Amino acid sequence: MIAMSVVVMLVLTLWLIGSLIGAVFKLTFALVGGVLGIVGSLLGLVFGGLALIVVAPLVALALLPLLLPGLLVVALVWIVVRAAHTNTHTPNEATSAH
């Protein structure tokens, strides 16, 4: 009976050592993978930003024919409002007798 318990303790000790080694490997690979993931995401952000800087003006030029009527309406409204706003007089200026 004592020999059987010694064998069971030996097997369980080996099992515990193996699972601790596996946990250390898992933690190590998780940390390395996390660091590589962060580096990869930063590189993706940089290259994605550069691609956006290059592509955004091209997309804006490609959409210009589609957006041109709306832009012309906005420009017309801005011109009318600006012209109407600059011609208004305050009551003091209209009634002054200099």
Task: Explain what you see.
- With 98 residues, the chain is mostly helical.
- It has one domain.
- The chain is built from 2 helices and no strands.
- It is rod-shaped.
- The relative contact order is 0.04.
* Average predicted confidence as pLDDT: 90
Element-level helix/strand string: HH
Radius of gyration (CA) equals 37 Å
Rounded to the nearest angstrom, the distance between the terminal CA atoms is 123 Å
Any low-confidence stretches, pLDDT <50, length ≥5?
A: none
Helix-strand category: mainly alpha
For this entry, give a set of tags.
98 residues; mainly alpha; single chain
The gist of it:
The chain is an all-alpha fold and 98 residues long.
What order do the helices and strands come in, and which of them pair?
Blueprint lengths: L1 H85 L4 H5 L3
